[in-house]
Amino acid sequence: MSKEAVLLELRHVGKYFGGLRAVDDINIKVESGDLHCLLGPNGAGKSTIFKMIMGIYKPTNGSVFFNQRNVTHLKSWDRVKLGISIKMQTPGVFGELTVYENMKIAVQHFTRHAEVKSEVSRLLELLMIRDLKDELVDNLSHGQQQWLEIGMALACKPKLLLLDEPAAGMGPEETDRTAELIRQLNQQGITILFIDHDMAFVKKLARNTTVLHLGRKFAEGTVEEIETNQQVVDIYLGKS
Ligand SMILES: Nc1ncnc2c1ncn2[C@@H]1O[C@H](COP(=O)(O)OP(=O)(O)OP(=O)(O)O)[C@@H](O)[C@H]1O
Predict the structure, then answer these.
(1) Which homologous superfamily is 3-83+159-236 in?
(2) Each residue of 89-137: pLDDT tens digit?
(3) Closest of 41, 50, 47, 45 to residue 24, by C-alpha
(4) Which end of the chain has fewer CB atoms < 10 Å from its terminal CB, N or C?
């Protein structure tokens, strides 16, 4: 991988909470244009890594590079301005407002006033929820709310989109639509790093995978390589 091809790099990153090494000496490179999955069982350190990429947690050790720039000490908002965006697992939408109003709140930070309406429409179309623009968010299905949140994360026109378990709690149909949406965003040039522990979903989407276990990098490679790695299979069955 050439230096220019790397969009995100974690170098010897660690995060300790008291005596707990939630993330320990992690090195990860995410290539520009990749659809990359952070895979691992509960408590492996995946969300903590996302929070360090986003600037929500400061690493105990190591550095985070974005576009070859050391962003370790930048605030979250400055990272957003550089092109990093996140959709967290916890809900970030306003249930008592409409779909349109939610999107407008996100879009108006990044778009000139005269273009807000058309940008909201463009995103709602992309998210397959344009017909629901006047609906209160509380009335949407779980999947539709998740797509709206992805849309709000897109408002800053990110180069790198972090998705924490984007299909969690969805049925098969919504999961398939979510996979399709993520694939589409990636084809439009957005590099995507997503967290998941559902191997079937990961197989549908990811090109490259980093497997974490107990805060350490356990394995990395293509989905095919990971799937046939006996040690990875074992940690999923609780043998390691
Ligand atoms: N703010 C915190 N204070 C103390 N411990 C924390 C904190 N955040 C996370 N941890 C611990 O760090 C470890 C890694 O947590 P993390 O949430 O990153 O794992 P994860 O791989 O995202 O798990 P899950 O799939 O369950 O979301 C866990 O043992 C967790 O309890």
Answers:
(1) P-loop containing nucleotide triphosphate hydrolases (3.40.50.300)
(2) 777 889 999 999 999 999 998 999 999 999 999 999 998 888 999 999 9
(3) 45
(4) N
pLDDT interval class at 212 (50, 70, 90):
very high
Residue located nearest, by CA, to atom 1 of ligand 1? 17
Which element (helix H / strand E) includes 162?
A: strand 160-164
* Locus of tokens 């149909």: 173
Give the pocket of ligand 1 (CB within 6 Å): 17, 20, 22, 40, 42-48
Of 39, 48, 212, the residue with max ligand 1 atoms within 8 A of its CB, to mutate for a pocket test, comes to 48
Q: What whole-number distance in Å separates Cα of residue 86 and Cα of residue 55?
A: 11
Of all atoms in ligand 1, which is nearest to the CA of residue 15?
Answer: 12
Q: Identify which of 48, 108, 107, 55 has the alpha carbon closest to the alpha carbon of residue 79.
A: 55
Contact (CB, 8 A) for 199 and 210: no
pLDDT in tens, 145-168: 999 999 999 999 999 999 999 999
Q: What is the CA radius of gyration of the chain?
A: 18
CB 161 within 8 A of CB 129: no
- Distance from the alpha carbon of residue 19 to the mean position of ligand 1, in angstroms: 13
CA-to-CA dists, residue 111 to 101, 133, 157, angstroms: 15, 19, 10
Q: What does the alpha-carbon distance between residue 199 and residue 104 come to, in Å, rounded to a whole number?
A: 35
Question: pTM value?
Answer: 0.93
Residue-wise pLDDT for 17-35, tens only, equals: 999 999 999 999 999 999 9
